[in-house]
Amino acid sequence: MTEPTATTDTSAGGPWPAGKRPAAFSFIFATVAMNALSFGLMIPVLPNLIKHFTGGDTAQASEWSVLFATVWGLMQFVVSPLLGLMSDRFGRRPVMLLSIFGLGIDFLFMAFAPTLGWLLVGRVLNGLTAASNATSGAYVADITPPERRAKNYGLLGSAFNFGFLIGPALGGYLADINLRLPFLVAAGLALANAVYGLVFLPESLPPERRAESLDWRKANPIGSLRFLQSHDELLGLAAIAFLFQFAVFVLPAIFVLYVGYRYHWSAASWA
Predict the structure, then answer these.
(1) Which of 23, 7, 19 is nearest to 200 (CA)?
(2) By three-state DSSP, how is residue 105 classified?
(3) What is the tens place of the pLDDT at every residue in 109-166?
(4) Is the four-CA dihedral 104, 105, 108, 110 of positive or negative sign?
(5) Is 4 helix (H, G, I), strand (E, B) or coil?
(6) Whole-number mean pLDDT of the chain?
(7) Cβ contacts of residue 112 below 8 Å, gap of 6+?
(8) I need a labelling partner for 249 at 20 to 30 A (CA). Which of 67, 74, 111, 241 fits?
(9) What is the pTM of this model?
(10) Is the peptide bond before 15 cis (omega within 30 degrees of 0)?
(11) Nearest to 134 by CA among 190, 79, 195
């Protein structure tokens, strides 16, 4: 009797060993949920940690919060095009794992940083590596047939909403025990997810479908903006994404400190 051979699937980015595609999507689903959960954990806690470092001065804490958000966004603006090109050239897996490890390291900085300066270093490192959500989308496109992509992207949206809904409440509950505890929990989630991906996550983009080289003309924000100008439909989507992100980041930058000052909310009030 001959041994059964493994089958492969080449319909969307293969070859894929039998059974690997569902496992890969499960990892991507968990990654998006974890990212949203960790972001939610941070929302009520990080501004209060910054306020703790400023001796309870809300005005000074708001200035630092804006600086943190601006530095992180600037790092993303500069580095994101390069990370996207790297995922096309070297595959989605290494970029995704780099991003998740970077998130975990950032949370460790938040958990143990003795000064605001060290907190800022963590934000810079995270800004330089954060690409998991964008790479997750590319990964899903690689492994999913066109007729199922809308469904799977909808599932990714539900994963984000689930993590974002429970994150602030869980962060507030943990902060009531210890202000640094939410960051330790978030770091544990991120690093555990990274180790799992390192061991089990297959690459979705086979060598024959990768870019032959890095196009350095596009590895900068200006090159990316020029690319958007050449595709009217992408320019509209980019504008929607910009407005969405602008609205989302108002919450951690301003709202938490405002309700703390105006209504005396603490991090535990979010639980």
Answers:
(1) 23
(2) helix
(3) 999 999 999 999 999 999 999 888 889 999 999 988 889 899 999 999 898 888 888 9
(4) negative
(5) coil
(6) 84
(7) 180
(8) 111
(9) 0.83
(10) yes
(11) 79
